[in-house]
């Protein structure tokens, strides 16, 4: 009997002690800094910002070469073999391309380094000079990374452009930076031909695909440029090797064009030292990062989150397997039925994600659970409840044997969606809802007794090379973005107009300002905007004014609570934070995307809602509602009433004020995609573009 009691008490005592230690741990500490007065926090382990984690390494080019020499024979970059493409047609007349993909085929670190050196020499052979800029305009793939590192070996500044960028923004980016060489895929090559008359400086196009010569019309129409395949550039370099012309820390590595959520994109100038500072800082946060890890790469490499992440992975000898958002899981849109998705085939241990992707994973799991029904549904919700109790300190849910049981019966099936081996997910690019973060934490959490958090939520911007804050591995709280990274100081300054002050109680609040070696040089050819948001203090530290509003918790962790641009004052004086409300409402299972709209001349808000087709159609069938197609279903009063009711429920659960809840909504049947120009490549809504596109619908909501 005594042994039985001890067996029950040990997990209980261990859990309580663990919970208390987490609560007491200081993750960030106050620090005295220069510049504008504010409340500043530093990382608890580093008294001054980290610039590099490797002795003698000051550039991304040097870091990459060192890693390739150390891990020469280890597998590095992997790409799935394309077996076949098919077009599937549906009864409603729509058709979709489906891919049959095979195993991953790998290049070693030594092979990749050889390709990088050959590509660098090939650029020189083509006549690309050091002072000229090259642009990479393609989806994420191994050639993208090889081209990046090849340019670095010639100290060529790389201009990164989202593959989904529209013609106006594409022309603006290329002409502003006077790019002479463009590296792209076959799909992007066609876009260039459509705007060829609007490009001023482009001389060479390097196509990552080898089938350009097969399409004679493309080549004939490209008399203004030379078009060369990627493999031919490598061959040129192999036959005509050229000495490396390596950069210095202060040289511009990348001009990264932002996603353009508020108009034409701005080119952020990043030095090698800027990006290296973030890469070095992340090294200290992810536990046990090393050669056994496998990373799934599918986000745009034109986004600093992905670019920094892949450089971290390369620095420590991990493997990178390439995929895409449309082939990520077994049920992704482009995966042929019966074919495994990228995650199932690769079985990654690490991945990055933006909130929109994680929201889809959560919604997909819940939809499948609801569709299955019966005892499976009951088991899932029982298991979820017990694990939630564990995180909240209840010893029953934390008991090791019970946890292993739930993992075996329920959560291993959820983990299998992402390959079954995920141990850490880095979420960034936008705020992640607390509900989604908790859901992923529970469903993908550790198989061990300790409830560890598989999601590390980070906060940073293109202007800070993604560096800012990062949740530590043992922090199971949600809704926060962690303590400052070792490369950054985070400061809150007063914003009296919005009512946010560093003296606020119980937590200091204000505009978030980030300082450190990761803060970039500024905007390309835009001195006015650079001077507006970048400041250098009396100690020489560079600060970036984010426009985001945050507050510091007592343990030094940051929480994002508002954004200056997203705050609208209603007719009777109430302030509405559009982003905060959208984050609360997106948890509705009926919602794929949502944009709240507030008008200063009205006392209420309205919303545009992109409805989730599977969920809404499933509800309609249960209700016996007849409809012609999904667009017809979205126009029905019963549908609008049901979805509006779900938004009100979500708003009440999030404790929103009455004036924050949309009084009226417009349902939309077509998804917002980067290709449509309504969301960025990181799936953040383009508020101004959506407002203009649906101006008549918004006006109608206020009139009706």
TrEMBL record:
Highest taxon above the source species: Eukaryota
Keywords attached to this entry: ATP-binding, Ligase, Nucleotide-binding, Phenylpropanoid metabolism, Signal
Pathway, according to UniProt? Answer: Phytoalexin biosynthesis; 3,4',5-trihydroxystilbene biosynthesis; 3,4',5-trihydroxystilbene from trans-4-coumarate: step 1/2
Taking every annotated instance into account, which residue ranges of this chain make up the domain AMP-dependent synthetase/ligase?
A: 98-524
A cellular-component GO term for this protein? endoplasmic reticulum
Q: Which Pfam families match?
A: AMP-binding (PF00501)
Kindly give the InterPro entries that the UniProt entry links to this protein: AMP-binding_CS (IPR020845), AMP-dep_synth/lig_dom (IPR000873), ANL_N_sf (IPR042099)
Q: Which GO terms describe its biological process?
A: phenylpropanoid metabolic process
- Would you indicate the residue range of the signal peptide? 1-15
Cite the GO molecular-function annotations of the record: ATP binding; long-chain fatty acid-CoA ligase activity
Q: Which reaction does it catalyse?
A: a long-chain fatty acid + ATP + CoA = a long-chain fatty acyl-CoA + AMP + diphosphate
Q: Which family does it belong to?
A: Belongs to the ATP-dependent AMP-binding enzyme family.
Spell out the protein name for this chain.
Long chain acyl-CoA synthetase
Tell me which species this is from: Actinidia chinensis var. chinensis
Q: What is the lineage of its organism?
A: Eukaryota, Viridiplantae, Streptophyta, Embryophyta, Tracheophyta
């Amino acid at each position: 009997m005594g042994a039985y009691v001890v067996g029950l008490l040990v997990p209980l005592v261990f859990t309580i002690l663990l919970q208390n230690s987490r609560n007491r741990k200081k993750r960030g500490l106050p620090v005295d800094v220069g510049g504008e007065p504010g409340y500043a926090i530093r990382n608890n382990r580093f008294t001054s910002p980290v610039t590099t984690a490797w002795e003698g390494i000051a550039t991304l080019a040097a870091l990459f070469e060192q890693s390739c020499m150390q891990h020469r024979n280890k597998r590095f970059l992997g790409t799935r073999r394309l077996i076949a493409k098919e077009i599937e047609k549906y009864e409603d007349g729509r058709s979709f391309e489906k891919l049959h993909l095979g195993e991953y085929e790998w290049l070693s670190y030594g092979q990749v380094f050889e390709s990088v050196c050959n590509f660098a020499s090939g650029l020189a052979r083509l006549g690309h000079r050091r002072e000229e800029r090259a642009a990479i305009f393609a989806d994420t793939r191994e050639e993208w990374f090889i081209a990046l590192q090849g340019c670095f070996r010639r100290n060529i500044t790389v201009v990164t452009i989202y593959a989904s960028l529209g013609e106006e923004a594409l022309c603006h980016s290329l002409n502003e930076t006077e790019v002479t060489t463009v590296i792209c895929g076959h799909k992007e090559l066609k876009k260039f031909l459509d705007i060829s008359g609007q490009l001023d400086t482009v001389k060479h196009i390097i196509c990552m695909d080898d089938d350009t010569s097969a399409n004679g019309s493309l080549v004939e129409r490209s008399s203004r440029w030379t078009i060369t395949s990627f493999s031919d550039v490598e061959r040129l370099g192999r036959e005509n090797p050229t000495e490396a012309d390596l950069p210095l820390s202060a040289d511009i590595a990348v001009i990264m064009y932002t996603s353009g959520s508020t108009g034409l994109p701005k080119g952020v100038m990043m030095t090698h030292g800027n990006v290296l500072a973030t890469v070095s800082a992340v090294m200290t946060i992810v536990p046990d990062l090393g050669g056994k890890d496998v990373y799934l790469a599918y986000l745009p490499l034109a986004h600093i989150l992905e670019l920094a992440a892949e450089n971290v992975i390369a620095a420590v000898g991990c493997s990178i397997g390439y995929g895409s958002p449309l082939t990520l899981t077994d049920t992704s849109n482009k995966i042929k039925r019966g074919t495994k998705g990228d995650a199932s085939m690769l079985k990654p241990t690490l991945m990055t994600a933006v909130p929109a992707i994680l929201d889809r994973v959560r919604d997909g799991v819940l939809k499948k659970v609801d569709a299955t029904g019966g005892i499976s549904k009951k088991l899932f919700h029982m298991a979820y409840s017990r694990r939630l109790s564990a995180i909240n300190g209840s010893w029953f849910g934390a008991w090791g044997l019970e946890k292993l049981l739930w993992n075996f019966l329920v959560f291993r099936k959820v983990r299998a969606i992402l390959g079954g081996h995920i141990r850490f997910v880095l979420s960034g690019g936008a705020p992640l809802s607390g509900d989604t973060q908790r859901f992923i934490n529970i469903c993908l959490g550790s198989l061990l007794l300790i409830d560890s958090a598989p999601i590390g939520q980070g906060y940073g911007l293109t202007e800070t090379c993604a560096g800012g804050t990062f949740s530590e591995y043992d922090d199971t709280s949600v809704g926060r973005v962690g303590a400052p990274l070792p490369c950054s100081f985070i400061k809150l300054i007063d914003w009296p107009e919005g009512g946010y002050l560093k003296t606020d109680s119980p937590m200091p609040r204000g505009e978030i300002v980030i300082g450190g070696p990761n803060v970039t040089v500024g905007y390309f050819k835009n001195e006015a905007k650079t001077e507006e948001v970048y400041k250098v203090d009396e100690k020489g530290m560079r600060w970036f004014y984010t426009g985001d509003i945050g507050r510091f918790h007592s343990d030094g962790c940051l929480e994002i609570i508002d954004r200056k641009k997203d705050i609208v004052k209603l007719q009777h004086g109430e302030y509405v934070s559009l982003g905060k409300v959208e984050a609360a409402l997106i948890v509705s299972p009926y919602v794929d995307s949502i944009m709240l709209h507030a008008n200063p001349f009205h006392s209420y808000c309205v919303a545009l809602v992109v409805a989730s087709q599977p969920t809404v159609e499933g509800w309609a069938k249960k209700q016996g509602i007849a409809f012609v197609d999904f667009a017809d279903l979205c126009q029905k009063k019963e549908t609008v009433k049901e979805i509006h009711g779900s938004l009100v429920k979500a708003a009440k659960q999030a404790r929103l004020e009455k004036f924050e809840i949309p009084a009226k909504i417009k349902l939309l049947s077509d998804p917002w995609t980067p290709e449509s120009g309504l969301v960025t490549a990181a799936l953040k809504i383009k508020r101004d573009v959506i407002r203009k596109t649906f101006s008549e619908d918004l006006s109608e909501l206020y009139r009706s």
